[in-house]
Amino acid sequence: MTTxxxxxxxxxxxxxxxxxxxxxxxxxxxxxxxLAYGYDNSRIQVSPDxxxxxxxxxxxxxxxxxxxxxxxxxxxxxxxxxxxGGSVPLRGGVVLSTEQMQKVIACHPDDRYITVQxxxxxxxxxxxVAEHGYFWPPDPSSxxxxxxxxxxxxxxxxxxxxxYGTPRENVLGLRAVTGDGKSIRTGVFTTKGVVGFDFxxxxxxxxxxxxxxxxxxxxxxxxxxxxxxxxxxYRDIExxxxxxxxxxxxxxxxxxLEFIDGTAIDLIRKNSDITFPEAAGxxxxxxxxxxxxxxxxxxxxxxxVASNHGLLSLTAAETAEQASALWNAxxxxxxALRNVAxxxxxxxxVVPVSNIPAxxxxxxxxxxxxxxxxxxxxxxxxxxxxxxxxxDPENTLQAxxxxxxxxxxxxxxxxxxxxxxxxxxxxxxxxxxxxxxLDATSLNLMQQIKNxxxxxxxxxxxxxxxxxxx
Length: 470
Ligand SMILES: Cc1cc2nc3c(=O)[nH]c(=O)nc-3n(C[C@H](O)[C@H](O)[C@H](O)COP(=O)(O)OP(=O)(O)OC[C@H]3O[C@@H](n4cnc5c(N)ncnc54)[C@H](O)[C@@H]3O)c2cc1C
What we know:
By secondary structure, the protein is α+β, with helices and mostly antiparallel strands.
């Protein structure tokens, strides 16, 4: 863990200003209390000088205006489950936690939207809208803990994105406070609308660097009647990728199309009692959803499409027990990875589907070259691969090679027309690599947009990309 605990006292004027806006129980300023709000899943830690818990848009507005007046850095925080350091307050200052912003502002089932405050967890939203027969498609596996604000700021998704899209495709509009302390409403309450530039999709994925989202109008999707799960095991990555491309070319789009590579299969074999065919080199988990009366035919069609010369076995679950047994093979992977390499680095690069074999073979070469085992799994239908570098800091050779290895993983990704992050964002962890993906003109335009939204650079400073002087 990278840790910095240097704290600066906030000025008495600033502290008095905070007390004018918020009740005492909405402010933390003791070092021990602030510590817990200084880290996320990136394992980087910097303690803030104060933590505030506003209740609504108006209180956020007043806090942002105060921070502007005093040039105090302000970092928005959902639940701190992010993996790239976005909610870590690099310059100290104030962390604005949305924990106490968990209200439903409006629910309109007939218009298929709900407007919520950003501190609600993803799962809480799913439970509320399920009562009306809907779900909100983004489904990070941290759904029980992570906040809607964090989901939007990172454009976080999960398996369902392959069929239903990411937050960018599932948000109608936002209310927010810009870095210079102004209220803004973006988007519409309809599924069509083209007046003005699309600030909704600009703010989604902006990692808290342009504005603080205070309300989000989420587009809802009707829950499917039922689901079916298939597990397909292939001889090699080429056959599995062929199947992914063939599945995505036909109209029955799975609601999950997950993959694990041969190294991951070996790891599961060694760390559980789950068995695979001896020649297994890759596995796909294919989940279909839809109307009950069509699912049997859908399973038949997908079975035919997924059956190529490299298929070793294909099992379709008939019952809920069989379905959970099939998922167990995939679920056994995360604990196995944690056991083998507690300090592993998990990247979430994305490449066009047909480049997955070249990516996996390139990663095998990098693994051999740097003596660092690499295990890959992820959302194959989107080409979003979680590349796990099983690095042991106590191993001198691996410690020496890890930076070069990671850098070459990113180079390989970009050579294959890929992107550095599919869903985890840039934060602090990937900041140094962004200029490899984005051209100088784009970076300058982004810097100008940042300056327009946040002229005093108080929102999440020193993150996302290396700031240029304009
Ligand atoms: C076990 C585990 C599993 C995970 N699985 C997935 C997965 O399947 N898919 C996936 O995409 N991610 C996954 N993640 C990563 C993480 O859960 C997501 O990135 C999540 O969206 C972060 O939400 P959060 O509330 O914790 O946000 P935080 O980590 O607190 O913040 C994330 C970013 O959002 C900004 N932010 C937060 N709230 C606001 C706001 N209201 N306005 C503006 N900016 C804001 C912060 O400043 C920061 O930059 C996983 C993490 C863990 C620990």
